[in-house]
Write a structure and sequence with these properties.
binds magnesium ion, binds adenosine-5'-diphosphate, alpha+beta, 267 residues
């Protein structure tokens, strides 16, 4: 009957809206939990910045000559600007972003994320090698791509308990028209029998102990959702005791342009 159909269709639409709302809420709370992981090293970094500012201010007050005062002011300015860059990055990341995509320079997105995690890596004795090949741009929701990268970077760091090396390579493949971001760690690796489950919601091997809160098991499932909504791909390769490499592929902006043009035509 037509009326029953309409009632059911309306109910179905309501349910779909509710699922979309819950999904975005979940992504936002998962995002805030990564902020929590980084909070202690960022606080530490702030203390260092404040110590620099206070020491140079004291030096400027003690010395009457102009050259020394100018030098002190330069140092204070640089320290203040660095702190402002970190807070701005953190605030823009933590904000609940509108669901909108724009063409972005991927190198900027990678650099902004690395700035947030740099101190955390140093604190855990993880060295960082980064390499940028070309200047790929892609049609992305920048906040979601940063969330995706941060999740992978934090997982990599957490896999290197006694320290290690993290490699981040951004490149572009003109042949298949994809930008590629490789994140490789020298951590514990993932056993072959767990590998198929790592993208499942709530799958985590991280236990709560005195050092950490354990894992939510939501990081990689959120990554997968983000990748799918960007028509991208994610691949993982891992060897026990050697490390893990995640590769993300995002369509270069021209190809995304074509994709959208064709899907608009189809619709
Ligand atoms: N780089 C990595 N090295 C080793 N194991 C990893 C790595 N990334 C993910 N994993 C495994 O995948 C599981 C799921 O990851 P994730 O969804 O981010 O949840 P969580 O980090 O909360 O445990 C982790 O618990 C871990 O077992
Ligand atoms: Mg995680």
């Amino acid at each position: 009957m037509a009326t029953t159909d309409t009632v059911e269709e309306t109910r179905l639409r309501e349910l779909e809206q509710e699922i979309a709302r819950l999904r975005s809420q979940l992504m936002q709370s998962e995002k805030l939990s990564t902020v929590g992981v980084l909070a202690s090293s960022i606080t530490h970094e702030f203390n260092n910045v404040l110590t620099t500012i206070i020491n140079y201010a004291k030096m400027g007050m003690r010395h009457k000559d102009e050259a020394t005062r100018d030098k002190a002011l330069d140092k204070i300015l640089a320290a203040g600007q660095r702190a402002a860059k970190i807070t701005t990055g953190m605030l823009s990341y933590a904000r609940s972003a509108p669901d909108r995509k724009e063409v972005h320079d991927l190198r900027h997105l990678v650099e902004d994320v690395l700035l947030l995690i740099e101190k955390d890596l140093q604190k855990h004795r993880v060295s960082l090698v980064k390499e940028y090949r070309g200047q790929p741009a892609s049609l992305v929701n920048p906040s979601q791509i940063q969330q995706l990268l941060l999740n992978l970077l934090i997982n990599a760091r957490q896999a290197m308990q006694g320290g290690g090396a993290l490699t981040v390579i951004l490149s572009e493949n003109q042949e298949d028209q994809f930008a590629e971001i490789l994140i490789r760690d020298t951590g514990c690796g993932i056993p072959a029998d767990t590998l198929p489950r790592i993208f499942d919601s709530f799958f985590s091997t991280k236990q709560a102990d005195e050092g950490g809160q354990g894992g939510s098991g939501l990081g990689l499932s959120v990554c997968k959702q983000i990748i799918e909504s960007h028509h991208g791909r994610i691949r993982v390769e891992s060897s026990i005791g050697i490390g893990t490499a995640f590769t993300i592929k995002l369509p270069l902006s021209r190809q995304v342009g074509l994709l959208h043009a064709s899907s608009n035509r189809a619709g």
